[in-house]
Amino acid sequence: MALKITVIGTGYLGATHAAAMAELGFEVLGLDVVPEKIEMLTRGEVPMYEPGLEDLLRKHVAGIEGSTGRLRFTMDWAEVAEFGDVHFVCVNTPQKHGEYACDMSYVDAAVESLAKHLGKPALVVGKSTVPVGSAERLAARILELAPAGGEVELAWNPEFLREGFAVQDTLHPDRIVVGVCSDRAEKTLREVYATPVGQGSPFVVTDFPTAELVKTAANSFLATKISFINAMAEVCEAAGGDVAKLAEAIGYDERIGSKFLRAGIGFGGGCLPKDIRAFMARAGELGADQALTFLREIDSINMRRRGQMVEMTREALGGGSFLGKRVAVLGATFKPDSDDVRDSPALNVAGQIHLQGGQVTVYDPKGMDNARRLFPTLGYAESAEAAVRGADVVLHLTEWREFRELDPAALGELAGTRLILDGRNALDPVLWRKAGWTYRAMGRPAA
Ligand code: UGA
Question: Can you give the pTM of this predicted structure?
Answer without folding.
Answer: 0.96
